[in-house]
Design a protein that fits this description.
Blueprint lengths: L3 H6 L7 E5 L2 E5 L9 E5 L11 H22 L3 E6 L12 E6 L18 H15 L1
Antiparallel strand pairs: 1-2, 2-3, 3-5, 4-5
Helix pairs in contact: 2-3
């Protein structure tokens, strides 16, 4: 099975990793809504939230909570947007949770979301480093 996220977890595809802990891994989205936008994935391949075993729910969402907190404390975000698509609008068929730093009047309206880019790989690396350090 070809799965981009499984390849990232296995280290066969490059990514700016911000969390590599237990049953979950998080890395920067390569097409972020805002700088710092991360994708949290379970290490094992599960296509949707429904497929995630019950004993992984706590650790998985605990990682989402830690990542959301790091965005506020390290990136200065006023809050965060945490979302999961199951099948519909799921660009990679591997469960992933979007954790996006948010600020008032940031331009995110409804589901018509602007996309941005990092200035370069160094800037993406720096965002990943800051979040990784905050997550311990």
């Amino acid at each position: 099975m070809d799965c981009a996220f499984c390849e990232i977890v296995a280290g066969r595809r490059p990514a700016h990793v911000v969390l590599d802990d237990g049953p979950a891994m998080a890395f920067l989205d390569n097409r972020p809504l805002f700088k710092g936008h991360a994708l949290l994935v379970p290490r094992e391949h599960y296509e949707t939230l429904q497929g995630l075993p019950g004993d992984l729910l706590g650790p998985y969402f605990g990682a989402a909570q830690r990542l959301s907190t790091a965005m506020e404390t390290v990136l200065g975000a006023a809050g965060s947007f945490v979302a999961i698509n199951n099948r519909v609008s799921q660009s990679v068929p591997h469960l992933h949770t979007h954790v996006v730093p948010r600020n008032r009047k940031d331009g995110l309206r409804g589901f018509f979301w602007p996309r941005t880019k990092y200035d370069d790989d160094d800037e993406a690396r720096e965002y990943a480093k800051r979040l990784r350090e905050a997550l311990g």
